[in-house]
Specification:
This protein is 73% helix and 5% strand. The chain is built from eight helices and two strands. It is globular, with a radius of gyration of 23 Å. 17% of the residues are buried.
């Protein structure tokens, strides 16, 4: 959709889910082989054919989606139980210094990677970097993980997909409004920037531009809260009766008792 660029990912993820279900249904316990194949071939494909490195959407967005999705599926396939067991022990004993240091290093690696690899082929390694981060933070062993479990951060986590979906739309509308105010008052709310090598209009570099960015963040979170609640309530209304009917059907089935030897 031209008015909300992130929406491309919905269609890519939808078909990735269908493909994942199909692969698991057909291949069963050997489905992980197909995930390995996708995780290996997808980055090679992007290296060979993408002219925008990892920044693909309408063209090779499905390949990009399969790449990250397959790595996540492999992580869950082989590490879910071990991570869950380790997390129970770590959370029960409280944050540990070694895990905290590992989390700090991981955050630094992510910041460095995003800073250096955003506009070159190195960026194609992003799913690998974030898979490693996911593996580390899934253990919840350090103080950063403890911070991420606070109510405010959990709320942001719940809103995260809605934030992703509305942030560009909200930003664009605020830039429109700031542009109108700029013409009347000249407060330096917006200015010229370079985006992906192309000239664009964004928030200004003065303190008023910084205030506008803070307003944008607050507006994005507020809009995300609305869309999240509307979407959740709508989906609950559609899905809950089906799930409840299914559970009622299961509850009405005779139970099979297996004698212990």
């Amino acid at each position: 959709m031209t008015w909300n660029a992130p929406s491309w990912s919905i269609s890519a993820e939808f078909f990735a889910y269908l493909l994942f279900a199909g692969v698991v249904f057909v291949a069963g316990a050997r489905a992980w082989i197909w995930f390995v194949a996708a995780a290996v071939t997808a980055p090679l494909f992007l290296l060979g054919f993408s002219t925008h490195h990892m920044d693909v959407s309408y063209d090779f967005g499905f390949i990009r989606c399969l790449y990250g999705f397959s790595l996540g599926a492999l992580l869950a396939w082989f590490q879910h139980d071990s991570i869950a067991g380790a997390r129970q022990v770590l959370v029960a004993n409280g944050p540990r210094l070694s895990w905290t240091l590992a989390e700090i290093v991981m955050v630094a690696v992510i910041v460095l990677f995003v800073s250096l690899a955003g506009d070159n082929d190195a960026g194609i390694a992003a799913p690998l970097v974030f898979a490693l981060a996911l593996f580390l933070f899934a253990h919840e062993g350090g103080w950063i993980s403890a911070l991420l479990r606070t109510p405010f951060m959990l709320t942001l986590g719940a809103l995260s997909y809605s934030i992703y979906m509305v942030h560009i739309f909200v930003q664009a509308r605020l830039i429109n409004v700031a542009g109108l105010v700029e013409r009347k008052l000249g407060l330096g709310l917006i200015g010229d920037i370079v985006l992906r090598g192309e000239p664009a209009t964004g928030f200004g570099a003065s303190w008023t531009g910084t205030v506008t960015i803070v307003v944008m963040l607050a507006a994005t979170i507020a809009a995300s809260w609305v869309t999240w609640h509307l979407g959740r309530n709508a989906c609950n209304g559609l899905v809950s009766p089906v799930v409840e009917a299914h559970l009622t059907h299961i509850a009405g089935q005779p139970r099979v008792h297996v004698a212990q030897k």
